Amino acid sequence: MAKKTASSKKAAKPAKAKASKKVSATKPKLDKEVYVKWYEDMLIMRKLEEKAGQLYIQQKFGGFCHLYIGQEAVVAGTETAITLDDNIITAYRDHAHPIGRGMHPKYVMAELYGKTTGCSKGKGGSMHMFDKQLRLWGGHGIVGGQIPLGAGLALADKYNGTQRVTLCSMGDGAARQGSFHETMNMAMTWKLPVIFIIENNMYAMGTSVERTSNVTEMYKLGCSYEMPSFQVDGMIPEKVFEATWDAVQRARNGEGPTLLEIRTYRYKGHSMSDPRKYRTKDEEESYIERDPIIHVLKIIKKNKWLTDKQIEAIDNKVKDMIDESVKFAEESPDPSPEDIYEGVYAQEDYPFVKE
Length: 355
Fold this sequence. Notes:
Blueprint: H1 32-57, H2 72-80, E1 87-89, H3 96-101, H4 105-112, H5 146-159, E2 166-171, H6 178-189, E3 194-200, E4 229-233, H7 237-252, E5 258-263, H8 281-288, H9 292-302, H10 308-331
Parallel strand pairs: 1-2, 2-3, 3-5, 4-5
Helix pairs in contact: 1-2, 1-9, 1-10, 2-7, 4-10, 5-6
């Protein structure tokens, strides 16, 4: 690192900056409570996405629609390793991330419909889920656009002396962007408390990793920056949790960032318009056989943590929740023309030219 020059003065910290509370380093036990939560949360994610796909075909809402079906273990595992005081920022395949943060799916569905009751007040749609209270900083439509923003969140927390970490997720395609490498270098140089997560579902938009890079084990990209980098089985939430937990502890202890390549699989195409002719049915079936929801359910049954009746009750609860979400979205009001001027600038009386 270059030495500071005489003109490089250290800025004073904001007078009102407050450190967040000390975060417990006690590792959560993967017990009945965790597995049942994983099952319910991942089921909500799955059923929400299945319903969103149906509604999109019915033209209930438009724009792009990128489904997360098959990747649910990534959100389930990572969320167990952090707190709601930590930051989440991700790409445009973002319907499941708010659920992992604890958001009711009706606010996600309303956002898909473009309604004012949506989590982004109907202004973001499928690719821009956002919730300040849950420290969910998007949903970003520009490929790789969230990567430097994730480092920025971590820099702010380090500057203000908080205990927060930031999970910055991206797809495998985003790792080809120049901003990825610039950000990795900066984050490691400044030892920022950020975990970069490549949700590697193998195909980016529709081109396999093997056809776009000589480096097919993408965690190795972090090695050139001497960043702790690991490959994780993204179909098993336990392994996702373990890797994320270790990365979070390094970040909280001031040891800087980690790169996790979480190898997962989307059962559907890149978006609703993708016929996914670039992969075989046998390959798809091989991953569906490793479905993370079925994996968790088998462990619940093996340990006799829930009876068949209790499992059925959860299934019915989730079904009712999704039905409620659709009803909520369809009955919610559309934005008014004047709403286009709200939330654009911090200045409340900004003099828009409206003629």
